[in-house]
């Protein structure tokens, strides 16, 4: 049987939620402790241990970095018992290391899984990203448009004025010009300090979040994770890898990427059905953070399946 046929998303999704929960729980003693590395390491250790218990023949395609720079959950690492379907795994054990260290909102653990060979092996470089929610015509906006053109095109498709469009952007000096141009056309700019996986996901539910579009550069691994989430939630995302030097281009070559200027759509980043889990570490706009409840800790996990379109929001009490 092929890996896709063996990919039982009903069973695997619950297992994935547990992996995500354990990574979040491991971060708890490190929230607000000012030590980003320790928080990340705790999440990595827990995620790896839990993945080791699953009956999968997993390969980390989006992980903590290249084999020589990440001792655990490096790109290409095999995880799971080896007895089960071949799967690709994309993970970010702690999306928001800095915000966890500072006890600020919106830190998450994120993991997704799909049949083997169906996720883009994005190197650890930046990616220029653009995303919109469901319900728009295909390619309603594009990475080749200016920020102004994107807002105008989206407003036209939505049937509103550019001034009614809200765009989520990571607050970074490199985005200053784009932010100025967005404001010039009348758009509202929703700035986030970190965490663009959640930023992208926010545009899938504008009625709740108020966000219509995501744009800007961030980690390429986070781009593939966000593409998996959008495959479950609906919406479109486009990503183009950005290279700052030859070393980064070499990383792409190692990952088998030859066309360095290619724009990847959502379904080119994740080509098959996918499952996705995110658990809150600190409370944010996507999921609640870890909550002490007497002698247990409560987690909230968003669990998504693209095949069925199911969106499950699960709370779980973990005895201390
Ligand atoms: O901080 P930079 O270099 O702009 O990178 C942006 C990336 O960092 C993050 O904000 C946080 O990433 P980590 O906490 O996982 O390191 C991502 O969501 C985003 O893609």
TrEMBL record:
Key word Ion transport present: no
GO biological process terms held by the UniProt record: fructose 1,6-bisphosphate metabolic process; gluconeogenesis; glycerol metabolic process
Catalytic activity, as annotated: beta-D-fructose 1,6-bisphosphate + H2O = beta-D-fructose 6-phosphate + phosphate
Residues where Mn(2+) 2 binds: 92, 95, 222
Binding-site list for substrate: 95-97, 126, 172-174, 194-196, 219
An annotated Gene Ontology molecular function: metal ion binding
InterPro entries xref list: FBPase_class-2/SBPase
Keyword Acetylation belongs to the record: no
Cofactor requirement: Mn(2+)
Any one GO cellular component localisation term in the record: cytosol
Pfam family, one: FBPase_glpX
CDD domains assigned to the protein according to its UniProt record, in alphabetical order: FBPase_glpX (cd01516)
Residues given in the record as Mn(2+) 1 binding sites: 40, 64
Keywords annotated in UniProt: Carbohydrate metabolism, Hydrolase, Manganese, Metal-binding
Similarity comment: Belongs to the FBPase class 2 family.
Name of this protein: Fructose-1,6-bisphosphatase
Species for this entry: Roseovarius indicus
Name of the coding gene: glpX
């Amino acid at each position: 049987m092929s890996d896709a046929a063996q990919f039982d998303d009903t069973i695997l999704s619950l297992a994935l939620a547990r992996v995500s929960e354990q990574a979040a729980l491991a971060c708890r003693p490190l929230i607000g402790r000012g030590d980003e590395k320790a928080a990340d390491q705790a999440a990595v250790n827990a995620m790896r241990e839990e993945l080791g218990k699953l009956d999968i023949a997993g390969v980390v395609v989006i992980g903590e970095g290249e084999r020589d720079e990440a001792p655990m959950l490096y790109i290409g690492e095999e995880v799971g018992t080896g007895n089960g379907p071949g799967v690709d795994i994309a993970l970010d054990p702690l999306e928001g290391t800095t915000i966890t260290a500072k006890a600020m909102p919106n830190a998450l653990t994120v993991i997704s899984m799909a049949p083997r060979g169906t996720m883009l092996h994005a190197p650890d470089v930046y990616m220029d990203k653009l995303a919109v929610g469901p319900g728009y015509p295909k390619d309603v906006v594009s990475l080749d448009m200016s920020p102004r053109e994107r807002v105008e095109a989206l407003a036209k498709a939505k049937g509103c004025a550019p001034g009614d469009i809200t765009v989520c952007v990571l607050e970074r000096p490199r985005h200053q010009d784009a932010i100025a141009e967005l404001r010039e056309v009348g758009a509202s700019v929703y700035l986030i300090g970190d965490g663009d996986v959640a930023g992208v996901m926010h545009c899938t539910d504008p009625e709740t979040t108020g966000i219509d579009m995501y744009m800007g550069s961030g980690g390429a691994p986070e781009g593939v994770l966000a593409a998996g989430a959008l495959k479950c939630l609906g919406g479109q995302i486009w990503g183009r890898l950005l290279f700052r030097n030859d070393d980064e281009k070499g990383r792409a070559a190692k990952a088998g990427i030859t066309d360095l200027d290619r724009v990847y759509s959502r379904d080119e980043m994740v080509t098959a059905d996918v499952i996705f889990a995110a658990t809150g570490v600190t409370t944010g706009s996507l999921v609640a953070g870890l909550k002490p409840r007497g002698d247990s800790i409560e987690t909230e996990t968003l669990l998504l399946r693209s095949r069925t379109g199911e969106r499950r929001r699960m709370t779980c009490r973990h005895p201390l």
